[in-house]
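ok so for the tutorial part 2 we go from a plain amino acid sequence to predicted structure tokens. step 1 is just haveing the sequence, like this:
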Amino acid sequence: MSSTPGEHASPGRPRSEAARIAVLQAVDDLLVEQGYAAMTMKGIAERAGVGRQTVYRWWSTKAEILLEASVGDAAHELATEPRARPADDLTAFLQALTAFLTTSPAGLAYRALLGEAQHDSAVRDLVRTADLLATAAQAVLTRISRHADHMPPAPLAAAQLTGPVVTVILQTGSPLPPALLADHAAILFRAWAAKPAH
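step 2 — the prediction. this is what the tokens look like for a chain of 198 residues:
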């Protein structure tokens, strides 16, 4: 997994884990209550009960805090148990991804960052470097790769797997129904497993 901005703290006193968790929780809460645009580093510090200097010692921007919260939670929330059938393995990951993007505070933070990245190049660079979705998808793609001889390179495979789910949620605010998630997984696996036509 790519390192997140918060892991590159400037020299000084080591982080207090309790303060770090308080800041990450505060940014989640404020995102829900105020939205991304209204959040400030001052407000995050006040909600977390820490000094602004403490926040700036570990993160440069609110986007860095949101990204750290998203990446850390995604590693757990998008981890799925292997299934007997490869298509079912893909479906389980898509179900976890849907829940992450629609119900998890970390997923909502990631959606906010995707939106901000469309017009803020610094946020776009953060999101691209973290590569949250491709990193999360790698485990399931690796598991099914022995059954999918024609799977494309990892970045494209991750985009093919996650792209429709993310696009529909960002455009409509609603997830794909479970049956369509299963259909998407089955169609994709068949394409990756099939011998190309000559």
